[in-house]
């Protein structure tokens, strides 16, 4: 069941990113960036075994944030991609402050059914979110920078601005995910799990990121088609006027 749920989650999450872009444009992707980073910080505290590997949940949601910045880099520009990163950082800081404030309330003991469960979950989130925040900022800013470096290289080398999307997409994401996976695993789990489990989490997380990076390439191509159609429609309206 774990494997099936992960596969379905990947399809639904990536499809949701494309749908948000189709319906709401760059604003939809900004919203998805905030949603993905917030939910990922909740999921990441859950350790499961799937495909023969120990792994934390949240990997697919974090992978989707790289899909979001790659779509924005390709279709809307570097400035918009970096804006999505800053929105993700803001949402993480807001969620950290809000979730920790929940622990300060004194519940009505006779009627309480949830506070202990909430404390169990969210008392562990500060370290996770702080680790995620630092790693997200570094790896995402690096990913956007590297995406456009690959783009300039291929355009200069081959004289084709639209070609080699697959190279800049995978060339930036796969390298950025090494930084993301290594730093987050060390910052979040040293002292929590033993070395063997930490290495297993790192290896399984990066394997998942390789898989999701390869699968998000068709999504970027589809997003570019969506963008081209929107731009063509807007141009046609201008010409009619």
Features:
mainly alpha; single chain; 241 residues; two-stranded antiparallel sheet
Report on this structure.
It is built from eight helices and two strands; from the N terminus they run H-H-E-E-H-H-H-H-H-H. The chain has 241 residues and is mainly alpha-helical. It has one domain (2-240). It is globular, with a radius of gyration of 19 Å. It starts with a helix and ends with a helix.
The outline comes out as globular
The spatial strand order of the largest sheet comes to 1-2
Radius of gyration: 19 Å
Q: What is the number of beta strands?
A: 2
Number of helical stretches of at least 4 residues: 8
**What fraction of residues sit in β-strands?**
under 5%
Give the uncertain stretches in residue-range form: none
| Mean pLDDT over all positions | 90
Give the termini distance in whole angstroms. Answer: 56 Å
Please tell me the total number of domains: 1
Question: What topology emerges from the helices and strands here?
Answer:
Blueprint: H1 2-24, H2 26-43, E1 47-50, E2 53-56, H3 59-75, H4 78-102, H5 115-122, H6 125-158, H7 165-189, H8 195-240
Antiparallel strand pairs: 1-2
Short description:
By secondary structure, the chain is mainly α. It contains 8 helices and 2 strands; from the N terminus they run ααββαααααα. It has a two-stranded antiparallel ribbon.
